[in-house]
Specification:
Layout lengths: L7 H6 E3 L5 E4 L12 H6 L3 E3 L5 H7 L6
Antiparallel strand pairs: 1-2, 2-3
GO molecular function, one term: structural constituent of ribosome
Organism: Acidovorax ebreus (strain TPSY)
Protein name: Large ribosomal subunit protein bL35
């Protein structure tokens, strides 16, 4: 049976932390920022964890991550 391939888009977007959680960047922070408030842009900073309900699809996209 051939090797399971990792989705190239997923390996660029997600990183697995040592505890088994997956971190991701925030969306809505790339363009059209003039109409967004400063408070809204400030809350979009930083890294957040992937929601528990999405971990199944992330595990399928990253088979070698051991999730």
């Amino acid at each position: 049976m051939p090797k399971m391939k990792t989705k190239s888009s997923a390996k660029k977007r997600f990183r697995v932390r040592p505890g088994g959680t997956v971190k991701r960047g925030q969306a809505f922070k790339r363009h059209i920022l003039t109409k967004k408030t400063t408070k809204n842009k400030r809350h979009l900073r930083g890294i957040v964890n992937v929601h528990e309900g999405d971990m199944g699809s992330i595990a399928k996209m990253l088979p070698s991550a051991g999730l």
